[in-house]
Amino acid sequence: MKIYATLIALLFMLSTTAQRYQRITQQAILADTHNDILSACIEKKVSLDQDLKGIAMSDLKRFKQGGVDVQFFSVWCDGDQRDPFDFANREMDTLYAVAARNPDKIVIVKNYAQLIQTVKAHKTAALFGVEGGHMIENDMSKLDSLYKRGARYLTLTWNNSNPWASSAMDETLHANTLQQKGLSDFGKKLVQHMNALGMMIDVSHVGEQTFWDVIHTTTKPVIASHSDVYAICPVFRNLKDDQIKAIGKNGGVIQLNFYSGFLDSTFMKKQQQFSIQHRAELDSMIQAGTQADYALTILFEKYAAEVDSWRPPLSLLLDHLDYVVHLIGVDHVGIGSDFDGINSAPQQLNDVTDYSWITKGLLQRGYHKKDIDKILGGNLLRVLHQNENDH
Ligand SMILES: [Zn+2]
Q1: pLDDT per position as a tens digit, 158-188
Q2: How far is the CA of 11 from the centre of ligand 1 (A)?
Q3: Ligand 1 center–CA 89 separation, angstroms
Q4: CA torsion, points 357, 362, 366, 369, in degrees to nearest 10?
Q5: How does pLDDT run across 199-250, given as a tens digit for each residue?
Q6: How far, in Å, is the centroid of ligand 1 from the Cα of 23?
Q7: pLDDT for position 294
Q8: Separation of CA 4 and ligand 1 centre (Å)
Q9: How far is the CA of 158 from the centre of ligand 1 (A)?
Q10: How far away, in angstroms, is 336 Cα from ligand 1 center?
Q11: Given the DSSP bridges, would you call strands 30-35 and 68-76 parallel, antiparallel or unpaired?
Q12: How far is ligand 1, taken at its centre, from the CA of residue 121, in Å?
């Protein structure tokens, strides 16, 4: 009888712990700072309010299922796009149309108070993150215009540099031909202007010189909207220890990217071998007009079993998280998944319904609920609020 009672107690404990991570995820204000679904919808000619299971990693219904309360939608085009500012606006239009069709599900919010109000009404609070300074076409008034439409961060560069800020890719791979290294005077004025507006400065993608120029110019906490730890995975998109410490000192937050290639230092080599192996197929797609990155993603989907076998474990993402926490504390780390902008994520992280696996992993590593709440969104909301206030 006693064994029975113990067994029942144990089963009860197991079932409540199994649900606890889901409860914590649902109850927390979960805020993700980087999702590329708007670009994916344009590429795949679908809409966010359709059921996109099997087509994309995100859709309106699955945000709700996954407990995503606050989503920054990435507004992006590459450096070759003509009229990038127009393109940015058209991309924003697509989310405005979705929000107009679904007022009971998603609201584009313009400030912290609206955000909280929307979350309390059990709707998804949407904001924009503009990924790439080239989209403002060197014109401060275009930044103002994007801000007015709901852009609450600007990633100062994407992989391409612009006349006022150099990117991590160019500082690393094209240092000799760089016209401008770091922030120009205009770049510094832009940072000050963003501080005054209450728009967050995103240092993901920027070169180290640009990063330090930002840190020495900004009076508000910055974000890295989708970056990981260089010491664990040394790629130019990740943050070195001195940069991580500087973000801690600045009061900012590092939002961790789920991309396998930024988490796992062996991933890029595997991807290279895959590309060599499937060269003929890749070349024929590129010749037919498909962008190189997108062609690779199509092949990743075609050979899913092969590609799946090199997905890193979820624990590796948590190792990056632990690393940041040990260096600068639990107040400066969060989530910037890059869902729908990446072709590989750690095991278990398949789409926007899978954040609770992170919570489960954090509980297993001994994190308390209070700190998990900060990681899932509290830290980001603090930084958003601090950017908005005291100006
Ligand atoms: Zn990016």
Answers
A1: 999 999 999 999 999 998 888 899 999 999 9
A2: 44
A3: 18
A4: -90
A5: 999 999 999 999 999 999 999 999 999 999 999 999 999 999 999 999 999 9
A6: 30
A7: 82
A8: 54
A9: 6
A10: 10
A11: parallel
A12: 31
| Rounded distance from Cα 91 to ligand 1 centre (Å) | 16
- Give the C-alpha separation, 197 to 213, whole Å: 19
Strands 223-224 and 106-108: unpaired
Report yes or no: 341 and 131 within 8 Å, Cβ to Cβ: no
Question: CATH for 27-266+310-388?
Answer: 3.20.20.140
CA distance 205 to 168: 6
So where are the chain's domains? Answer: 27-266+310-388
pTM listed for this prediction: 0.93
Closest among 272, 241, 269 to 254, alpha carbons compared: 241
Cβ atoms 135, 77 nearer than 8 A: yes
CA distance 114 to 70: 11
CA proximity to 93, closest of 71, 73, 116, 118? 73
Nearest to 43 by CA among 379, 291, 255, 353: 291
CA of 79 to the centre of ligand 1 (A): 13
**285 C-alpha to ligand 1 centroid (Å):** 23
Tokens representing residue 295 in the block: 């062609």
In total, the chain counts a number of residues equal to 391
CA of 5 to the centre of ligand 1 (A): 53
